[in-house]
Structure formats: C-alpha cells, structure tokens
Amino acid sequence: IEGFRNPLRSTGRFVMAREHGVVWETKTPFPSTIVLSQAQLINRQSDGSSKVLLSAADSAAMSAVRGLLMALIVGDFDQLSTQFAIQVQPSESGWALLLEPTDLSLQQAFVQIELHGDQFVRQVRMVEVAGDRSLIEFSELQTEPAELSSTEAGLFE
Predict the structure, then answer these.
(1) Is the torsion defined by CA of 38, 75, 72, 88 positive or negative?
(2) Could you tell me the CA-to-CA distances from 46 to 9, 10, 33, 106, 149 in Å, in that order?
(3) Which residue has the higher pLDDT, 67 or 13?
C-alpha cells in the first residue's frame, strides 16, 4: 500500500465455481470472506455479520466486476481482450501476459495487470493508479472435487 513501509500480507483460500462465482476466504491477518456470486458481492466477517458491497439489482458495475474477476482467475483471454490491450511476455515456465486497460473505467483504477501461469493462473500482479500494488499468488490449486461441498454451496445463497 502506497505510504506503508512494509507490505500488508494476507493468506487464505478461494473456491472458484464457474456457474456460481468465487469465495475468497482470508485467514490472516484479518479473518473475512468475500463471496462474489451472479447477484452480489458480499463481505462476511468472522463474527457472522455480512455486508452487501455490490448488488446486481442496484448496479450495472456488478456484472463488470464479476466478469473481470472471473476472467482474471481463469485466464479468459477473449474476455480480457475486450477491456485490455494484451502483450505476451517471455516466461521461463508457462505464459505471462501484461494487461493495459483500454476501458475508461478500468483506466481510472489500474495502470496495468500482469498474469503469470501455466495450466492455471498462478499469479496476478496489479498496479493501481494511486500507486498501490497487489500481488496475488495461487498455490495448491486443485480441480477435484468437481462439486461444491454443501458448506461451499451455502455461501453462494
């Protein structure tokens, strides 16, 4: 974060279900869960409280946020090319893409986004206009089980 001496580090896990959305559970330093579904973006706190951050009923931006996040996580190049100029970068293991926003609303938030991966997206690096930088690294990726557990499915309701 711009102005901080040391980076803010967090760890957690995520579940991506193409037909439902994404559950992003932060374990440290502050437990919370973000659920991005077709209908809304919800922040669930460890005390059981939750807050709707975006609702499809209230905002056209909801579908844009969901589409962008899903495209970044799965590396949907066709979707990303509608909002970014894409440059393929040399990579020792797999592929790397440099995304520069062409969409005006994204240009107000991001200078660039880099994706690195192989079979999966392994790393997302974002540089924001305000100077903040985020690095998201995905490890221990699994495609099994193919079905959501009842607990995971319940988070999307």
Answers:
(1) negative
(2) 18, 15, 8, 31, 20
(3) 13
Full-prediction pTM beyond 0.85?
no
Higher-confidence position of 1 and 78: 78
pLDDT tens readout for residues 60-74: 666 677 778 778 877
User: What's the CA gap between 122 and 27, in Å, rounded?
Assistant: 19
Length reported for the chain: 157
One-letter amino acid identity for 84? F
> Is-contact 100 88, C-beta < 8 A?
no
Contacting residues for 22 by C-beta, under 8 A, at least 6 apart: 14, 15, 16, 34, 35, 36, 69, 70, 73
